[in-house]
Amino acid sequence: xxxxxxxxxxxxxxxxxxxxxxxxxxxxxxxxxxxxxxxxxxxxxxxxxxxxxxxxxxxxxxxxxxxxxxxxxxxxxxxxxxxxxxxxxxxxxxxxxxxxxxxxxxxxxxxxxxxxxxxxxxxxxxxxxxxxxxxxxxxxxxxxxxxxxxxxxxxxxxxxxxxxxxxxxxxxxxxxxxxxxxxxxxxxxxxxxxxxxxxxxxxxxxxxxxxxxxxxxxx
Length: 219
Known about the structure:
With 219 residues, the protein is mainly α. The protein folds into two domains: 1-74, no CATH class; 99-219, no CATH class. The protein has helices at 7-14, 22-34, 44-54, 61-74, 83-96, 99-115, 127-140, 147-164, 177-185, 187-200, 207-215. Helices cover 64% and strands 0% of the residues. The protein is globular. The protein starts with 6 loop residues before the first helix and ends with a helix. The longest helix has 18 residues, at 147-164.
C-alpha cells in the first residue's frame, strides 16, 4: 500500500480526529510508511485517526486506499476497539481496489491467521472474523484455488463460532450464532459482513459455507 498513499491521503487520514493534532498524526503515519515491521502497539497518535478512518464509509478509490492502509495497521495491533468491524473494512476495501490488492491481502491475512497478532488470540467472539476474512479474500483473489484450503478455512470458522458459544462463556451459549456474530461485528460491521458473505460465497457448496450463508442472512 505504501506506493498508493500520496501526501494528500496521509494528510486526510491525519485530519480525521476533527483536525486535532494533525501534524503529530501526519508524522506518526509517515513513520509507519517507512517502518520495516508494523508495530504491535500504537500510541494515541496515530491510533485514533487510524481507527476513525477504518470506520469511514468509502465512495472512491482514494478513500478505499486510506481505509485499507489503516485497517492493515490496526488488525495486528493490540487493544483493537472493533476487531471484527476493522477486518470487514479491510476485506471490503481490498476487494474494491482490485485483483492486486486482493492477492496481497490474502498473504497478509494468512500471516495474521497463522500468528494471531494483537487481539485475535484472546477475543473468542472476534476470532471467527479473521478466519472468515481470509476465506472470503482467498475466494475472491486471482490465486490458484485449492478446495482443501477453502474447506479447511470454512470448517475452522464454524468451529471458532462454536468455541465462542461454548460453556466457558456462560453469557453466550443460550444465544444463536447469528446474535453472537452480530454483536461482535457491530451495526455497520454486520452490514459489511453480510454483503461480503453474499458476494464471495456464491459458488461454494460446502456444508460449512451453507452454514455461514445462513448465519449472515437477512433474518
